[in-house]
Amino acid sequence: MVHLKYKPIPQELAKGTTLLQRINKNNAALQYIELKVIKMTSGSKFQESLGKQEVCIVALTGKITVTDGEHTFKTIGTRKNVFEKIPTDSVYISIEQTFDITAITEATVILCYSPSDKKKTTTLIKASDNTIERRGKYQNKRLVHNILPDTSPIADRLLVVEVFTDGGNWSSYPPHKHDQDNLPLESKLEETYYHEMNPRQGFVFQRVYTDDRLLDETMAIENGDVVVVPKGYHPVGVPDGYDSYYLNVMAGPTRKWQFHNDPDHEWILNRE
């Protein structure tokens, strides 16, 4: 059975720096994505040396300073809580670099990785650089912040996006997939979902399934959980009274988001 749901398991890396999630090919059915979620107290530090990986450092909450030795971005980050629903700052760092993160305030940081052999430029992705979309209608509405869309030339493989879904709505819906390297019809992209809920004690439902149903799992997802989508359709349902946030990381052999809707449910897009 493919393992899809990951609960946060706190592990202290250094004083004030706690690893909450670590997703990689050793514990997940992924080849193109790794993910870390780190909680930091004011003044704490995190350092890492990249091999043949690129990284997008998302200042999820709080304020941080990021440096790769040559470029330094001071006191970035825009919000205390993701449910302020405003974009935040991120930093892209390319392969074979060493970077340092210093927490200026209490902060949560998400590190999104993908293998790469292409040298790119360290870049600050300011909150104001995020494109903002409102998608869907009826009970299928969501707010999207595009941090690293496929139209951005910054990254080699990584795609990163934030999605906010109000209670009683569905997201990543109608069910769609992107697991076939069959452009221009469909691209092959693995995906991870980092979830938060408001209020925190809430939950959402996420189903991951394939056409043949050899993979078909529906999960109750709580605050701080990560869902891995190596293949298949992956809709999210948000119960009444609770709002949903998730951060998506996608990566694959080609940096193009071309999805295929489940034909059984595509009709909902054409409702008047």
From TrEMBL:
Enzyme Commission (EC) number: 5.3.1.30
GO molecular function, one term: glucuronate isomerase activity
Reaction catalysed by this enzyme: 5-deoxy-D-glucuronate = 5-dehydro-2-deoxy-D-gluconate
Keyword vocabulary terms for this entry: Isomerase
A Pfam family of this chain: KduI
GO BP terms in the entry: inositol catabolic process
Keyword set includes Disulfide bond: no
Top-rank EC class of the record's enzyme: isomerase
Pathways per UniProt: Polyol metabolism; myo-inositol degradation into acetyl-CoA; acetyl-CoA from myo-inositol: step 4/7
Signal sequence extent: none
Family membership: Belongs to the isomerase IolB family.
Function statement: Involved in the isomerization of 5-deoxy-glucuronate (5DG) to 5-dehydro-2-deoxy-D-gluconate (DKG or 2-deoxy-5-keto-D-gluconate).
NCBIfam families: myo_inos_iolB (TIGR04378)
PANTHER family cross-referenced by the UniProt entry: 5-DEOXY-GLUCURONATE ISOMERASE
Protein name per its UniProtKB record: 5-deoxy-glucuronate isomerase
Organism: Enterococcus plantarum
